[in-house]
Design brief:
Distance between the termini: 32 Å
Largest sheet: none
Structural class: mainly alpha
Strand content: under 5%
Radius of gyration: 19 Å
Shape: globular
Helix content: over 70%
Number of helices: 14
Order of helices and strands: HHHHHHHHHHHHHH
């Protein structure tokens, strides 16, 4: 893509980064600043990208950035309630991301956006529908970090994928092994769920949702002290994403639920340094 066509987007990213710096927020990598453009104003980004696609339907940069904006629009509504509109946003995002991958297979970003769109789409689906998309989510998230080992979003999707797969019930696990093949389950394990989410936090310690997800996994496995540590850290973080206020409320509620719980085992969580420098 020409520097001329990318210039307005880089200017917008620079403005976001400057605003964050004025708020005494963390130093962000250029990619993260670009992602926060979408997280703060997905409608504005989508309008820009659709205009670019109207001029050039094969603009692969615009395709995956439009897909990113659609995912962020979907995130405005909780995954706990059914919504045909939200699911249609994720479905459209997946379609655009696949088109971008076809044109730029060595770019990690469209692989990540596709993994994220599919992962979020499954949250409102039944167990068997989730399993049908599991292989593609794993493949795309794995491809993301293979292309860029510092991609904390990719590590987050991978860690959450391992967690979700390990929580699949026996009956649904039998269904998946019978009709989808056993390979996908052979890859899933608890150690990777912890390790990949911890890596996401270590790479982006300012990221509220990374810490919230890691805390939820810690709590689920009985590492209550480690979960509390992440949840308390969340309260100190700058709100950078439009959904961070909601995520902080969820963290507060989870912390309250853990008030009287104790660790199931005396050992520390698999890595109690999550949040330190990588």
């Amino acid at each position: 893509m020409s520097r001329h066509r990318l210039a307005p987007f880089l200017l917008l990213a620079s403005m976001v980064a400057s605003r964050l710096a004025a708020q005494a927020g963390p130093e962000l990598a250029p990619r993260d600043s670009l992602y926060l453009v979408s997280a703060r104003d997905p409608r504005g980004l989508l309008t820009q990208m659709e205009a670019r696609l109207a001029r050039d339907s094969a603009d692969h940069e615009a395709q995956w950035r439009a897909a990113l904006a659609l995912v962020d629009l979907g995130r405005e509504q909780s995954d706990s309630v059914k919504s045909a509109r939200r699911d249609s946003l994720y479905t459209r995002a997946a379609e655009l991301a696949r088109r971008a991958i076809a044109g730029r297979p060595s770019d990690p970003e469209p692989h990540f956006v596709l993994a994220q769109a599919l992962g979020r789409l499954t949250k409102s689906r039944g167990p068997r529908e989730r399993l049908k998309l599991a292989a593609e989510i794993y493949e795309q998230a794995s491809r993301t970090v293979a292309l860029d080992s510092t991609h904390h979003g990719g590590w987050h999707v991978l860690g959450e994928w391992h967690f979700e797969m390990m929580k699949v019930s026996g009956m649904n696990r039998f269904f998946a092994r019978t009709f989808l093949g056993a390979r996908i389950f052979d890859a899933a394990n608890w150690d990777s769920a912890f390790r990949d989410l911890e890596r996401a936090v270590n790479l982006a310690p300012w990221h509220v949702f990374h810490r919230l997800t890691l805390a939820a996994v810690y709590a689920d496995r009985g590492y209550v002290t480690a979960a509390r540590q992440q949840l308390r850290e969340i309260a100190t973080l700058t709100e950078l994403d439009a959904q961070d206020a909601r995520y902080k409320r969820e963290a507060t509620m989870l912390l309250a639920k853990l008030a009287d719980r104790k660790d199931k085992a005396p050992a520390a969580a698999p890595a109690d340094a999550a949040g330190s420098a990588p």
